[in-house]
Amino acid sequence: SYRVNKEEYSAAKQYLRTIRNEQKELQSMKDMAAELRASIYPGEIVYDAVKVQTSPEDRMSEKMAAWSDLIGEIEQHIITLEEKKVEALQIIRKIEESNHRLVLELYYLAGVDSLLTWDQVADKMSYTKRHVLKIHGAALIDFAEIYKELKDDTQ
Fold first, then answer.
1. How many angstroms separate the CA atoms of 40 and 82, rounded?
2. Ramachandran angles phi, psi of 46, nearest 5°
3. What is the DSSP annotation of the chain?
4. Cα separation, 118 vs 20, whole angstroms
5. Largest CA distance in the chain
6. How far apart are the C-alpha atoms of 28 and 71, rounded to whole Å?
7. How far apart are CA 16 and CA 85, in angstroms?
8. CA-CA-CA-CA torsion for 74, 79, 85, 88, nearest 10 degrees?
9. Residue 45 has what pLDDT?
10. pTM summary value
11. Nearest to 81, CA basis, from 132, 49, 115, 131
12. CA-CA-CA-CA torsion for 140, 146, 147, 153, nearest 10 degrees?
């Protein structure tokens, strides 16, 4: 079968890594939104002796606007990310070897709120981390071949 060169391999790896990184970024945004929401609706209000120049109402409306903007960003990020994940999954599904498909899905696409580490992927696949990394290398070559074909077709 057709093998890929270094640039094609790197492009495919970067494509998948971008999806993984965007999931991390999304989680960070969700955490920020939760913190902001908690500051808008605290369990208790603590009044301290320090006088502030802005009124609490102004500060509260600023926080609510920031929270609302962040929620909008998160929603847009989710839509974009889901499109990328679907596209990646379509490529992964074309890989013949089931272990190759599984390692890519688990590492790059699985985990809604937290991504899996290599150790967790190894546990799920019942292999050593070293063996999973070896499978991953071969899986990336498979992915890169299909990714390159699709890119060639769209150009």
1. 29
2. -105, 120
3. -----HHHHHHHHHHHHHHHHHHHHHHHHHHHHHHHHHHHS-SS----S---SS-HHHHHHHHHHHHHHHHHHHHHHHHHHHHHHHHHHHHHTT-S-HHHHHHHIIIII--SSSPPPHHHHHHHHTS-HHHHHHHHHHHHHHHHHHHHHHHHHH-
4. 13
5. 74
6. 12
7. 9
8. -130
9. 52
10. 0.81
11. 115
12. 170
How confident is the model at residue 40, as a pLDDT? 82
Q: What local confidence, expressed as pLDDT, does residue 151 receive?
A: 80
- Whether the pLDDT of residue 2 is over 70: the answer is no
How far apart are the C-alpha atoms of 33 and 56, rounded to whole Å? Answer: 20
Quote the CA–CA distance of 93 and 108 in Å, as a whole number.
Answer: 14
